[in-house]
Amino acid sequence: MKKILVANRGEIAIRVMTTARKMGIKTVAVYSTIDRNAPHVRFADEAILIGEAPSNQSYLKGDKIIEVAKSLNVDGIHPGYGFLSENADFAELCEQNDIIFIGPKSKAIKVMGSKLAAKEAVKAYDIPMVPGIDEAITDVKKAKDIANKIGFPILIKASAGGGGKGMRVVEKEKDLESQMNRAISEATSAFGDGSVFIEKYVSSPRHIEIQVMADSHGNVLHFFERECSIQRRHQKVVEEAPSSVLTPELRNQMGEAAIKVAKSCDYLGAGTVEFLLDENLNFYFLEMNTRLQVEHPVTELISGVDLVELQIRVARGEKLNIKQEDLKINGHALELRVYAEDPLNDFLPSVGHLSVYKLPVGKGIRVDNGYEEGMDIPIYYDPMLSKLITYGNTREEAIMLMKQAISNYKVEGVATTLPFGKYVCEHDAFISGNFDTHFVKNYYAPENLKADMESDAKVAALIAVKHYLKDQKLLRVPKI
Ligand code: MV4
Q1: Does residue 16 sit in the same domain as residue 55?
Q2: Residues designated catalytic
């Protein structure tokens, strides 16, 4: 592979190109009109305008991107995350045009994109699943029978959903019929597929996911877990590796299960197998994400591998030259997603002009960033500015570094999730490691953050006054 096109923007485009460059591979950026001066465009060896700002006129135009790739003799396309990364048709279009899609084969994307097809695929592999059914259900009477067998509360999920879309909790039998009808009509309009199924509702789970990597020679490795329970409305905000609750035995079991999930769909490349972990440390397979994930850096830091490099290597047919038993966890990593969103105002996007934008630097601090001072944040895309990642010998050290890094990260012009990150790092439940997917709902209210920010402002004001008074005492040469 001599030249790679990155079909993405922002921090992930730069992240992928950094590794390509390290490997001696040329890079091509694609961009929309509004991204004309974006950092990922200047970072690449070549850059091509592909359309107008809305994603469906640019970053989602698979045929246009293939056309550009062919005209520039590109060997492979890296889709990053989001956009075309889990589009089976695009993966197939690449294959048909003799361009390597740096990701799994379209078939694996398709199977894992359907929750019911995924359940079917892993059936023969002895993977722990949440009690429930593994086929689409439309008959309310049958649904009631099953729900009573499993026991309420139950969860109705859309087969074509994922990431929490199209889910409904049902507490009592009397609500089942109306909730089921709503779920079916929602799934039909959102995904064009009204298939829904039922699972036992695990009420206070942790979200633990396992990073896997597969080559085209039948080797699959796992790179341990990421704890992603700190999320709001299915949007992750803080992630870490390793999880503070897994024992080495449980980690092995979940890793083995994740490898089996990858094998069940003949997986290739980087993937993530999501599990729910209940209070009694039972784990259940949820779904597989067939892409490089946003939070991959915490895994890179604790395992010492470059996941993008491995993606490129296996995509060009190389064997994974690492053995599972050689992989060890070293240290602890935390990631805060820095969004241009206002935590004091229901996390609404706070797009605008980055009048000040200064990144923290130092040992144990990594910032995967897509923006710079003076830029406007476009309204058209995900408002994530960067990922602030810290790495220490222990969890305590990583948390301390995160608090330092947050205070050295200077942003003016837009509100960000940085103060929210500080709030999480200072919260007892987070510090103790005793939290679940309800952390934000249970412990966060804008008032808490406001109090926090005001007391910080008071301390800053007191320091300023002290300096001023000290300054006044100094002997000054009088002006004549
Ligand atoms: C669940 C669940 C409880 N019980 N399934 C949400 C996203 C999608 N990947 C699956 N999700 C869940 N499935 C059963 N049977 C709770 C969630 C869930 C969740 C999972 C991971 C991270 C955050 C979450 C927030 C709310 C609900």
Answers
A1: yes
A2: 291
